Amino acid sequence: MDAAVVAQHVSRTYGSGDLSVTALRDVSLTIERGTFTAVVGPSGSGKSTLVHCLAGLDSPNARPETVIQVGGQDITRMNDKKLTEFRREHVGFVFQAFNLVPVLTAQQNIELPLTLAGKKLDKQRLGAVAQALGITDRLEHRPDELSGGQQQRVAIARALITDPDVIIADEPTGALDTETTAQVLGLLADTVHNQGHTVVVVTHDSRVADYADRTIRVQDGRIVSDEFVKGGRVGSLHGSSAVTTHDDDVRSPGTPGRGNRLGASQPSIASLADEIRQRGGEL
């Protein structure tokens, strides 16, 4: 099996001297392509630091033996500009807070990583991703017109649209109710088992492990267990039941059912992308 992520001798220390805190202690692991990995552990265990280092959001301690390869490229040797560009094209992100741009429609939010990378939208791929996630009829709605579950589906679509080497999901179900959590986890599992994507979820929610092929437990900055269950205990959800949406979903603040209200004053996706680039930022 081909490796999506390879990490060797990764350590991370914050601060120095008596005030230093070691979050990771010489961690090594390999994540194969087409797998769903859950990284679990209590608060302060180092799980988020580990995944952030794997994604290039945090930098490990600089040591000659330290390597983090994503899609075969060592990100520890990249400068900030190169690393930002690499993340845009090779790593998809899903966050607890969704991180959608409120003035853009769902489709424009999904397109934004491509716009930032200067790439053209593949409408056929957009249609396939939207259909798989059950948001085809929500593409012209803005985030405040969507339920929490629908917003997270849009965030997942945004992560998938660039066909990244790995999708990193940081507490993706933390703001969702039990039913919506099961739907989102099922959708993430489907992207792995039906579409061949690689997903890594960091969470304190034990339910996530039920959907994962592999569960890595982190404690005190070290991997203390590594369990494989191919297909997960629950397995992926199939058919329309996995992408069913309900009108009575709890919506985010806003007026439900008002439809898309895009005015002439709305900033274009291109202008927003230019602004993000100028700030040196990303999604």
TrEMBL record:
Pfam families, per database record: ABC_tran
GO cellular component, one term: plasma membrane
InterPro entries: AAA+_ATPase, ABC_transporter-like_ATP-bd, ABC_transporter-like_CS, ABC_transpr_LolD-like, MacB-like_ATP-bd, P-loop_NTPase
Residues covered by the ABC transporter domain: 5-245
Biased composition (Basic and acidic residues): 274-283
One term of GO molecular function: ATP hydrolysis activity
Region (Disordered): 235-283
Keywords: ATP-binding, Nucleotide-binding, Transport
The protein's name: ABC transporter ATP-binding protein
The organism of origin for this protein: Kocuria subflava
Phylogenetic placement of the source organism: Bacteria, Bacillati, Actinomycetota, Actinomycetes, Micrococcales
